[in-house]
Specification:
Largest sheet: none
Number of strands: 0
Structural class: mainly alpha
Distance between the termini: 42 Å
Radius of gyration: 15 Å
Order of helices and strands: HHHHHH
Strand content: under 5%
Number of helices: 6
Shape: globular
Helix content: 55-70%
Amino acid sequence: MVPPVLTQEQRADALAQAAQARTRRAEVKVALKSGSMRLSEFLDAAKGDEVLGKMKVVSLLQSMPRVGATTASAVMAQVGVSSSRRVRGLGAHQRAELIRRFG
């Protein structure tokens, strides 16, 4: 598949949007890690925010306090979430179980 041909202006806009999305996700990760944002608040915000909805679940879980790669993988396996799953692709039962575990 050949990528679309973009003008310099379109390319610059796309790069600016990507940088803004990375900054938004980084801010949310810091808020989760510090405890100023709860997982339930994040999931509510992700319903209306496409940038947060595209975040991978493993990255989200690793942003929680005292959760590293091993714990995130174990929780995802227990809840039945694929390692490539994004937040917007979580089912209702998976969301409820993650909220039960992390608040």
